[in-house]
Automatic annotation (TrEMBL):
It comes from Nocardia panacis. Residues 2-183 form the Bacterial bifunctional deaminase-reductase C-terminal domain. It comes from the Bacteria. This is Dihydrofolate reductase. Coiled coil: none annotated. InterPro entries: DHFR-like_dom_sf, RibDG_C, Riboflavin_Biosynth_HTPR. One of its GO terms (molecular function) is 5-amino-6-(5-phosphoribosylamino)uracil reductase activity.
Amino acid sequence: MRKLTYYVAVSLDGYIAGPQGEYDFYPMCEDMTAWAVERYPETVPTHVRGLFGMPLDTPNKEFDTVLMGRGSYEPGLAAGTDSPYDHLRQYVFSRTLAPIDNPRVRIVDADPVELVRELKNQEGLDIWLCGGGNLAGQLLGEVDRLIIKSYPVLAGDGVRVFAGDFSPTRFGVTERREFSNGAQITVFDRA
């Protein structure tokens, strides 16, 4: 069975983006970027792969499907692409976006839990939950793995990593790595 992995950047106070969807406040560094590109190349948007020296046809290693909320999808639209991860099957959960005329992108206004359960039973690589916090909160019961890029910065306000009801859920640390900018990437698997 395929796993659902929430791979996301988080501030020390639990925000994945600022109040207007900003994410440029995270301090970047070369060693962290190189590690992430090598380990999870499919998480690099198709339209910026050239900036990272990646061929467009770099093979997917972990994921072949990405789930996004509207807020996670819209930066791609703002950059001029309706298919930011053209190398993945893309599901965008939104009740306000119109359907996209692209076979790689499906706008979904149905229950995300039901769709994730269907996807988990299909053949393929794992499923990447890209964001946002509202969608992650709805899918918490289906998340099998967390890959948290924890940055040494306080945001103060914004989009929470998980929005929703109080629901303590245990995960265990399976890997941790620190980078030159003070950020850590920690992999957690459901306990």
